[in-house]
């Protein structure tokens, strides 16, 4: 494979991605339609609210007073100079999306290098396992994922949080501690939940260190870097908006789920229906539930930090208060990084169908509920549940697959003898 | 196989760590559970509520001062003059005796008789310089005459004429007059403040049936409902009538409550039913049973959107020609109601105005206008109804029977309450407010005590405490004869106690038994806790087995070791 052809391919993929996005941005009606869909922009990622915040900020009104803006102050600062030009805003979105694609490509390259050093898994029939997807394929899967496109055209600000997450993983794989921790801090700063990614990123940074003491030292150093970056970001925000109001407005809204605009998630309906008496309790339960998985998953799968970060992103995207398809685009983009587990997955067809089903029916049921009035909130929520089930099955299935692969690596299948017949039914998996 | 064992140990370790990390979060969540589902209960002042319920904290007293004035001219004429101090002491003593006879330890209306200045005026001339402007302070002017006679004037003055000018007779007459004036009020207030729970409810319902709940302001709505356009009604002179007849009432009442007035005309406002026909008298009539259906609540718009004050409605209904004339009577041939009107308790009044269309057409310039003359009888009825609704007691009707000599009560213009009636109203309304707010607070306290999972927020506690303070303030004002201030304070107390009672945060948890909690927790926590507990149990089991294994390994190693182990165990 010549280097030239691969770079040509890359140019073609990225060029097409840019062209497609530019073309779609040519229809402002589409952008505003997508921007208003509850599946794409939530109260904490809506571009409309961001513009409002920037407008208030420009006019010297404290942007977090009115309870409309829930985006981080530095995001307002980022958009402040360019908001008046739609072209620049669109370009920023396109370039950010491309950057994620590029970083995914780079991550795959690093991962492949790691993979080349590992002992090869012997598969049924004595074959060696083939390497997973190439970097360009991973980037293509991300860039041309309909969720990614819709989220980008809808100008959801989750894109920036996603960028920070992917950058953190890239830097973690590269071994750049300070930049990795800074990226995790930025992601945390933008949408809080990615703070739990600090564990897999530290696992990445320490994956080549065998010395226990050194690992501990690096971990402490990284935690310090993370905390320092976060404090610096907060301080910078304070300098920008000159008040600490943004804490309540940005993180308070995320944690207390105070804006109950319907979305694809599971929280809004619960908190609408709930007795007020129990609201604080279930709020705590729901939020703990998001974070409870971080430690056990990282312990169990500590050899696969890339997969851990995928799983945690999927958990966030499923259980957080304001999920959108932008979250799905992130974890669906991270999943191909562990493409070697695909062959062990059993429910890919079901999951694909569940995603398609909910994607098609969510707008319809929303229309039936909100515009026609022949449906009710339960219709839309049911679709949210289907979507959630799809995500959960995907998580369970992929976790099963990676554990299965781990098992294969430790106990290579015997081509002959009793184990092959009595043990796991490998033929089914291997096809 | 050392590597295998290592990897198994590593696996065990990992599993244990995973279980531990999940359990750590769960255990961390437990205090949060306790904290977030804790039923917040601010402590209510139960002790002082109980004290108030028995009137132990402050017994309301309604002091009344009566200044006695003896005629000076008569003193000089006859030889043996009754001493004013004797009269005063005598009256006071007689009142105490009366109370003791009635089994009352202490009179609620603490009437105090004070020797006033002698007077030289004439009975026919109002003594304006001695007019009392303080509610609760009155002047009795006593003079000799041919017949015993008492006349209660409007300006807190009473004129008593006695037949024989001696101390005993004067005392008798004063006592009789005083009990005629204040006796029924004393009884009413005593019933109100009665803390005996058996009798309380019944009497209250009876007494307060008609009267509207006290409010510092009311909205009066005068509505003209015209059954049909063909009865020729276009306009009514309500504004003039209000100015002429209602103004004095409102002015006098303004110390107790303020009024805002609006009027409306609705055409084609027909009845929801057809009145019966009495062919003998050619009249359409409504029986008293039909009256509850008179208000066509579905079609007549009576709700006022202008203010949030409690509203009282006064309807004038002009029947359509097909049901005219319309009267109220019990049946055909029975005598019809003289006022052709009725009162709806706590809501307002209704008057039916029959117009003789032919006559009005002949005699008047504008037959489509209901004139002031037409409206006068209606307005008189409304004024009487308004007095009833406001709880103004007509002293002349309540005290007529008992006295041995005639007592005349002077009325003021256009049914406006007299000063006597107004003072009476001030005292009774204060007492009512005190009783009502205490009843509200004590039922709130009962409710909170009986419902242990009811949330009691701080502002409820604050409201209750402040209401109690207002009640106390009102009680003090009463004992100092500051009736206007007492009424204001009692009203504040009532408002606060009701705010606390009807607070939405309390209502939501009224019917929330413990069983509901299981229904809330089960669907979430049973699915979560089963794998958590199972994994924990399995892990414990595995640890035990491992220990056993280790024990057995040791056992097989040597007999000596086993003995040592055995000793240790013993």
UniProtKB/TrEMBL annotation, chain A:
<keyword id="KW-0256">Endoplasmic reticulum</keyword>
<keyword id="KW-0812">Transmembrane</keyword>
<keyword id="KW-0472">Membrane</keyword>
<feature type="transmembrane region" description="Helical">
    <location>
        <begin position="344"/>
        <end position="367"/>
    </location>
</feature>
<dbReference type="GO" id="GO:0016255">
    <property type="term" value="P:attachment of GPI anchor to protein"/>
</dbReference>
<dbReference type="InterPro" id="IPR009600">
    <property type="entry name" value="PIG-U"/>
</dbReference>
<keyword id="KW-0337">GPI-anchor biosynthesis</keyword>
<keyword id="KW-1133">Transmembrane helix</keyword>
<feature type="transmembrane region" description="Helical">
    <location>
        <begin position="305"/>
        <end position="323"/>
    </location>
</feature>
<feature type="signal peptide">
    <location>
        <begin position="1"/>
        <end position="31"/>
    </location>
</feature>
<dbReference type="GO" id="GO:0006506">
    <property type="term" value="P:GPI anchor biosynthetic process"/>
</dbReference>
<feature type="transmembrane region" description="Helical">
    <location>
        <begin position="281"/>
        <end position="299"/>
    </location>
</feature>
<feature type="transmembrane region" description="Helical">
    <location>
        <begin position="157"/>
        <end position="173"/>
    </location>
</feature>
<feature type="transmembrane region" description="Helical">
    <location>
        <begin position="379"/>
        <end position="403"/>
    </location>
</feature>
<feature type="transmembrane region" description="Helical">
    <location>
        <begin position="179"/>
        <end position="206"/>
    </location>
</feature>
<comment type="similarity">
    <text>Belongs to the PIGU family.</text>
</comment>
<dbReference type="GO" id="GO:0042765">
    <property type="term" value="C:GPI-anchor transamidase complex"/>
</dbReference>
<dbReference type="Pfam" id="PF06728">
    <property type="entry name" value="PIG-U"/>
</dbReference>
<feature type="transmembrane region" description="Helical">
    <location>
        <begin position="246"/>
        <end position="269"/>
    </location>
</feature>
<feature type="transmembrane region" description="Helical">
    <location>
        <begin position="218"/>
        <end position="240"/>
    </location>
</feature>
<keyword id="KW-0732">Signal</keyword>
<feature type="transmembrane region" description="Helical">
    <location>
        <begin position="78"/>
        <end position="105"/>
    </location>
</feature>
TrEMBL record, chain B:
<dbReference type="GO" id="GO:0006506">
    <property type="term" value="P:GPI anchor biosynthetic process"/>
</dbReference>
<dbReference type="InterPro" id="IPR019540">
    <property type="entry name" value="PtdIno-glycan_biosynth_class_S"/>
</dbReference>
<keyword id="KW-0325">Glycoprotein</keyword>
<dbReference type="Pfam" id="PF10510">
    <property type="entry name" value="PIG-S"/>
</dbReference>
<keyword id="KW-0256">Endoplasmic reticulum</keyword>
<keyword id="KW-0472">Membrane</keyword>
<feature type="region of interest" description="Disordered">
    <location>
        <begin position="545"/>
        <end position="570"/>
    </location>
</feature>
<feature type="transmembrane region" description="Helical">
    <location>
        <begin position="518"/>
        <end position="537"/>
    </location>
</feature>
<feature type="transmembrane region" description="Helical">
    <location>
        <begin position="17"/>
        <end position="34"/>
    </location>
</feature>
<comment type="pathway">
    <text>Glycolipid biosynthesis; glycosylphosphatidylinositol-anchor biosynthesis.</text>
</comment>
<comment type="similarity">
    <text>Belongs to the PIGS family.</text>
</comment>
<keyword id="KW-0337">GPI-anchor biosynthesis</keyword>
<keyword id="KW-1133">Transmembrane helix</keyword>
<dbReference type="GO" id="GO:0042765">
    <property type="term" value="C:GPI-anchor transamidase complex"/>
</dbReference>
<keyword id="KW-0812">Transmembrane</keyword>
<dbReference type="GO" id="GO:0016255">
    <property type="term" value="P:attachment of GPI anchor to protein"/>
</dbReference>
<protein>
    <recommendedName>
        <fullName>GPI transamidase component PIG-S</fullName>
    </recommendedName>
</protein>
């Amino acid at each position: 494979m010549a280097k030239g052809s691969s770079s040509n391919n890359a140019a073609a993929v990225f060029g097409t991605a840019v062209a497609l996005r530019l073309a779609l941005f040519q229809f402002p009606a589409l952008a505003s339609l997508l921007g208003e869909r509850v599946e794409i922009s939530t109260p904490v990622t809506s571009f409309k609210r961001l513009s409002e915040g920037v407008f208030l900020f420009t006019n010297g009104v404290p942007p977090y007073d009115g309870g409309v803006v829930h985006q981080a102050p530095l995001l307002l600062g980022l958009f402040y100079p360019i908001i008046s030009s739609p072209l620049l805003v669109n370009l920023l979105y396109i370039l950010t999306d491309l950057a994620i694609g590029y970083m995914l490509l780079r991550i795959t390259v690093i991962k492949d290098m790691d993979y080349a050093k590992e002992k090869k898994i012997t598969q049924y029939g004595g074959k060696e396992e083939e390497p997973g997807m190439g970097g360009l394929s991973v980037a293509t899967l991300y860039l041309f994922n309909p969720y990614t496109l819709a989220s980008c055209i809808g100008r959801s600000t989750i894109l920036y949080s996603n960028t920070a997450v992917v950058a953190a993983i890239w830097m973690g794989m590269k071994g750049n501690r300070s930049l990795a921790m800074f990226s995790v801090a930025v992601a945390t700063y933008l949408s809080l939940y990615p703070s739990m990614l600090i564990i897999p990123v530290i696992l990445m940074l320490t994956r080549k260190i065998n010395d226990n003491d050194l690992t501990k030292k690096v971990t402490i150093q990284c935690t310090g870097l993370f905390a320092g970056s976060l404090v610096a970001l907060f301080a910078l925000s304070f300098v920008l908006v000159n008040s600490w109001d943004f804490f309540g407005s940005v993180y308070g809204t995320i944690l207390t789920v105070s804006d109950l605009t319907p979305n694809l998630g599971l929280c809004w309906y619960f908190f609408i229906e709930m007795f007020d008496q129990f609201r604080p309790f279930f709020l705590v339960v729901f939020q703990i539930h998001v974070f409870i998985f971080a430690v056990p998953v990282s312990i169990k799968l500590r050899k696969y930090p890339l997969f851990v970060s995928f799983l945690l992103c999927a958990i966030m995207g499923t259980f957080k208060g304001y999920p959108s398809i932008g979250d799905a685009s992130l974890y669906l983009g991270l999943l191909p990084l562990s493409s070697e587990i695909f062959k062990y997955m059993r429910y890919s067809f079901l999951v694909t169908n569940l995603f398609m089903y909910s994607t098609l029916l969510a707008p319809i049921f929303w229309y039936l509920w909100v515009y026609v009035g022949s449906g009710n909130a339960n219709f839309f929520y049911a679709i949210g549940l289907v979507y959630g089930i799809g995500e959960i099955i995907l998580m369970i299935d992929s976790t099963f697959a990676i554990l299965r692969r781990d098992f294969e690596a430790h106990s290579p299948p015997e081509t002959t003898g009793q184990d092959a017949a009595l043990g796991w039914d490998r033929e089914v998996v291997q096809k | 196989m050392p590597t295998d064992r290592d990897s198994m140990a590593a696996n065990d370790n990992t599993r244990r760590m995973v279980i531990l990390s999940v359990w750590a979060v769960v255990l961390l969540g437990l205090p949060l559970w306790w904290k977030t589902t804790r039923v917040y209960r601010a402590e209510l002042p139960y002790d002082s509520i109980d004290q108030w319920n028995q009137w132990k904290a402050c017994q309301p007293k309604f002091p009344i001062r009566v200044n006695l004035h003896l005629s000076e001219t008569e003193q000089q004429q006859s030889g043996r003059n009754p001493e004013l101090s004797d009269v005063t002491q005598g009256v006071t003593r007689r009142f105490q005796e009366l109370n003791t006879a009635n089994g009352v330890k202490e009179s609620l209306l603490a009437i105090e008789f004070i020797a006033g200045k002698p007077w030289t005026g004439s009975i026919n001339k109002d003594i304006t310089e001695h007019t009392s402007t303080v509610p609760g302070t009155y002047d009795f002017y006593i003079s000799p005459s041919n017949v015993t006679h008492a006349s209660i004037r409007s300006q807190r003055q009473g004129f008593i004429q006695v037949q024989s000018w001696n101390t005993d007779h004067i005392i008798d007459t004063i006592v009789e007059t005083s009990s005629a004036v204040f006796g029924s009020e004393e009884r009413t207030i005593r019933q109100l403040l009665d803390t005996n729970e058996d009798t309380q409810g019944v009497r209250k319902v009876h007494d307060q049936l008609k009267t509207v709940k006290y409010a510092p302001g009311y909205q009066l709505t005068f509505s003209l409902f015209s059954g049909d356009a063909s009865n020729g009604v276009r306009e009514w002179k309500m504004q003039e009538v209000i100015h002429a007849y209602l103004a004095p009432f409102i002015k006098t009442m303004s110390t107790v409550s303020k009024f805002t007035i609006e009027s409306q005309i609705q055409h084609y406002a027909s009845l929801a039913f057809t009145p019966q026909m009495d062919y003998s008298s050619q009249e359409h009539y409504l029986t008293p049973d039909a009256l509850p259906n008179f208000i066509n609540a579905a079609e007549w718009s009576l709700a006022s959107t202008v203010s949030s004050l409690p509203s009282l409605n006064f309807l004038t209904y002009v029947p359509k020609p097909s049901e005219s004339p319309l009267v109220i009577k019990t049946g055909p041939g029975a005598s019809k109601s003289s006022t052709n009107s009725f009162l709806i308790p706590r809501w307002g009044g209704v008057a039916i105005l029959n117009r003789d269309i032919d006559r009005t057409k002949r005699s008047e310039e504008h037959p489509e206008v209901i004139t002031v003359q037409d409206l006068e009888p209606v307005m008189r009825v409304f004024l009487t109804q308004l007095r009833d609704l406001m709880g103004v007691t007509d002293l002349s009707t309540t005290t007529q029977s008992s006295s041995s000599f005639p007592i005349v009560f002077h009325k003021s213009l256009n049914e406006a309450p007299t000063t006597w009636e107004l003072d009476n109203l001030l005292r009774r309304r204060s007492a009512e407010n005190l009783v009502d707010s205490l009843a509200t607070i004590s039922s709130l306290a009962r409710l909170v005590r009986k419902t242990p999972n009811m949330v009691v927020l701080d502002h409820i506690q604050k409201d209750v405490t402040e209401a109690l303070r207002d009640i106390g303030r009102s009680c003090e004002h009463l004992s100092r004869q500051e009736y206007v201030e007492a009424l204001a304070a009692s009203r504040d107390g009532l408002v606060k106690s009701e705010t606390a009672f009807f607070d939405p945060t309390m209502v939501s948890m009224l019917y929330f038994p413990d069983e509901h909690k299981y229904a809330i927790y089960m669907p979430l926590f049973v699915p979560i806790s089963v794998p958590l507990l199972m994994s924990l149990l399995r892990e414990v089991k595995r640890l035990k087995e491992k220990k056993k294994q280790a024990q057995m390994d040791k056992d097989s190693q040597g007999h000596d070791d086993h003995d040592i182990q055995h000793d240790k165990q013993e």
